[in-house]
Design a protein that fits this description.
Layout lengths: L3 H9 L26 E2 L10 H11 L12 E10 L17 E10 L14 E9 L2 E8 L12 H8 L15 H8 L5 H7 L14 E2 L4 E4 L5 E10 L8 H10 L3 H11 L5 E10 L25 E10 L4 H6 L12 E2 L4 H18 L67 E2 L11 H8 L3 H16 L4 H14 L1 H11 L9 H10 L33 E5 L6 H13 L3 E6 L3 E4 L5 E4 L1 E2 L10 E4 L4 H6 L2 H12 L3 E4 L4 H6 L8 E3 L6 H10 L15
Parallel strand pairs: 13-14, 13-18, 14-17, 18-19, 19-20
Antiparallel strand pairs: 1-12, 2-3, 2-10, 3-4, 4-5, 6-8, 7-8, 7-11, 8-9, 9-10, 15-16
Enzyme class: oxidoreductase
InterPro entries: Catalase, Catalase_AS, Catalase_clade2, Catalase_clade2_helical, Catalase_core, Catalase_haem_BS, Catalase_immune_responsive, Catalase_large_C
EC number: 1.11.1.6
């Protein structure tokens, strides 16, 4: 048997050192430009002959098996989409006609982590909807953030490689707080806007049901006359947009890594069907170049102040999968799954995704993935494809080609019967074939600044804290300093505050290496940017404290011990359930709870099995249980931590000494029954705000 040293010698021939080497393809061909796909002109469509791009993406798509390379951890549900407005002047898509109801399957996911990672990672969330229309399946494959890290699909494998666990040690899992991610984004100024979103509360949603969804890219709607209108897709949740605190997210990951998955499943099982309104931002073809930014740039959004979102329909998720693997895991999404009336644009990231997603599904699920029940179109499929991996359909006859006469020319072109088939929008293209990017894509900091300035003070502080946390995990000080230079281009105060936490003075100018890479894309970089139309945008913040809210489906912990007054428990339960909230009794132990009057109730939750981070608000009822709770460290931990995370707390008359023993300060988020006839209304009103974020600094207590 050969010893370890000889085995090591055997492996020497396979060790590769990239130092001072020219970037090449897998065939050793030197690569001139690894930042741009081959296009017709700077803003034109990508070309199928780009073998360097295909070689890179084909390899990337096959790097993980059997789970998805990205969006591996997800949850899904069935539902219905109802179109409520008439937009026939913009599109001939049948499912987008007023009054039409369409079955859907929606999948939510994290991006970076493996299938077994936590739901509460700081990450982008996938938000993809498959519409089973009468003209075939249409997939709206989006995220809970309206922009993306990169502008061209050729950089997508690099982005994901950087955020995945580092290949030499396979950690950290489902986290961006490490060297390789920040190395990549600090060298790619185009990522600045998206990174700002990822460092915000948007990357820590309270629930899938409380996330916005976005199509990210600019698409086209096509009407019956062939006229195109640019469109951005938005999903607006009926329950509002809400997040958890970063400290809370880390603890939830420990207590229940399936927090979002369980939340979605149980809400649907309980009949609390999640709903989103579909909104459209519509831009006339002639207004394509109207704005200070390029609408085909996927790192840019269109502020709603410039183009309002028109609400046109509602999606309701009302049925859980019968089998997670058969449905959620095998659901295959692809932005190239289009129907008549919708088309893609020349966005270079979208152009690459259309290839990559289809290739990934073919590799992962087999060449007949569209025959798996969850992916089958409701109107059937008819073509002459008869072979391939995992074939399920049995096609009769001897014909497997088109055109043919043996099968009577069937199946036939839609045009032969005067029916509408899918046609790409007739777009004039006349430009040189090249690897370049439009200079209109070169403003990287204006919209990042817009997003930061549009956040409330607490939201800005959360972003500062997130950058400080993430960059503190980066071991290379050069990378930290390089990213601080990026932040200084966005907002000097942001850079100074993050720099102070890292003991680094933020450089005023971009790092030379960053500029070197940027100038390989645009020789004149940085450019003189246009004055933005909007300095702040209300739509970029989350729900405002004074916004009309709801506590529907929120979980409220009723914290008790034996001897509690039953009426004190029942009164708040009735009030909360009338508002649509869930009242959950938590006691010192599971099993029978003995009320002060001697009656019993079976309890499923205890301070040992549950944690405050799993609940939205807290109520302590009155009774002899107070003396028990005074000496219960787990109870005190519950209320102290709830207070720290800016949640609403209410205390029944006679429980005041519990607060005195805790770390809780009496502020606008703490309600007492004693001497307050309207205490229940106040409690609910505070809960409708989701959190009292504006007094977060005053609530900094150990928990």
């Amino acid at each position: 048997m050969k010893n370890n040293s000889s085995k090591k010698e055997q492996l020497k021939d396979y060790l590769i050192d990239n130092d001072e080497k020219i970037l090449t393809t897998n065939d050793g061909v030197p690569i001139h430009d690894n930042n741009n796909t081959l296009k017709v002109g700077q803003r034109g469509p990508s070309l199928q002959q780009d073998h360097i791009f295909f070689d890179k993406l084909l390899h990337f798509d096959r790097e993980r098996i059997p789970e998805r390379v990205v969006h591996a951890r997800g949850s899904g549900a069935h539902g219905i989409f109802e179109m409520k407005e008439d937009i026939s002047e913009f599109t001939c898509a049948k499912f987008l006609q007023k009054g039409v109801k369409t079955d859907v399957f929606t999948r939510f996911s994290t991006v970076a982590g493996f299938k077994g990672s936590t739901d509460l990672a700081r990450d982008v969330r996938g938000f993809s909807v498959k519409f089973y229309t009468e003209d075939g399946n249409y997939d709206l494959v989006g995220n809970n953030i309206p922009v993306f890290f990169i502008q061209d699909a050729i950089n997508f494998p690099d982005l994901i490689h950087s955020v995945k666990p580092e290949p030499n040690n396979e950690y950290p899992q489902a986290a961006s707080a490490h060297n390789t991610f920040w190395d990549f984004v600090s060298l790619m100024p185009e990522s600045a806007h998206m990174v700002m979103w990822a460092m915000s509360d948007r990357a820590l949603p309270r629930s899938f049901r409380m996330m916005e969804g976005f199509g990210v890219h600019t698409f086209k709607l096509i009407n019956n006359k062939g006229k195109a209108t640019f469109v951005k897709f938005h999903w607006k949740p009926k329950l509002g947009v809400h997040s958890v605190a970063w400290d809370e997210a880390q603890k939830i990951s420990g207590y229940n890594s399936d927090f979002h998955r369980q939340d979605l499943y149980e809400a649907i099982e309980n009949g609390d069907f999640p709903q989103w309104d579909l909104g459209l931002q519509l831009i006339a073809e002639e207004d394509e170049f109207k704005f200070s930014f390029d609408i085909l740039d996927p790192t840019k959004l269109i502020p709603e102040e410039l183009v309002p979102v028109k609400i046109v329909g509602t999606m309701t998720l009302n049925r859980n999968p019968e089998n997670f693997f058969s449905e959620t895991e095998q659901a295959a999404f692809d932005p190239g799954r289009l129907v008549p009336g919708i088309d893609i644009t020349d966005d270079p990231l979208l152009q690459g995704r259309v290839f990559s997603y289809m290739d990934t599904q073919n590799y992962r699920l087999g060449s007949n993935f569209h025959e798996i029940p969850i992916n089958r179109p409701i109107n059937g499929k008819h073509n002459n494809q008869k072979d391939g991996k995992s074939r399920m359909d049995i096609l009769k006859g001897n014909v497997s080609y088109f055109p043919n006469s043996q099968a009577g020319g069937c199946p036939y072109h839609a045009m032969l019967k005067g029916e509408n088939g899918f046609e790409s929008h007739a777009q004039k293209v006349n430009a040189h074939k090249l690897r370049q990017r439009s200079i209109s894509f070169a403003d990287h900091f204006t919209q990042a600044r817009l997003f930061f300035h549009s956040q409330p003070k607490t939201g800005q502080q959360h972003i500062i804290d997130a950058y400080s946390f993430e960059l503190s995990k980066v071991k290379d000080p050069v990378i930290r300093k390089r990213e601080l230079a990026i932040l200084n281009q966005i907002d000097s105060d942001l850079a100074k505050k993050v720099g102070k936490n890292l003991n680094i003075e933020p450089p005023k100018e971009l790092d030379e290496l960053t500029l070197k890479f940027a100038r390989q894309i645009w020789s004149q970089y940085p450019i003189k940017v246009k004055k933005p139309e909007v300095e702040k945008s209300k739509s970029l913040g989350m729900d405002l404290p004074d916004a009309k809210g709801t506590i529907a489906t929120r979980k409220v912990a009723i914290l008790v011990a034996d001897g509690v007054v039953k009426k004190s428990v029942d009164t708040i339960k009735i009030i909360l359930e009338k508002e649509g909230a869930q009242a959950v009794i938590i006691s010192t132990k599971v099993g029978p709870l003995i009320y002060e009057d001697g009656s019993h109730e079976e309890i499923q939750h205890s301070y040992l099995t549950d944690a405050s981070v799993l609940y939205d608000a807290f109520y302590t009822p009155s009774g002899k249980n107070v003396d028990t709770l005074l000496d219960n460290a787990d109870y005190l931990q519950f209320i102290n931590e709830g207070f720290k995370h800016c949640k609403a707390l209410a205390f029944a008359e006679g429980t005041e000494k519990l607060v005195e023993k805790s770390l809780i300060k009496k502020d606008c988020g703490v309600v007492f029954e004693k001497g307050n006839k309207n205490w229940t209304l106040q409690f609910i009103d505070i809960m409708k705000q989701h959190r009292v974020w504006d007094i977060e600094m005053d609530r900094k207590v150990p928990a």
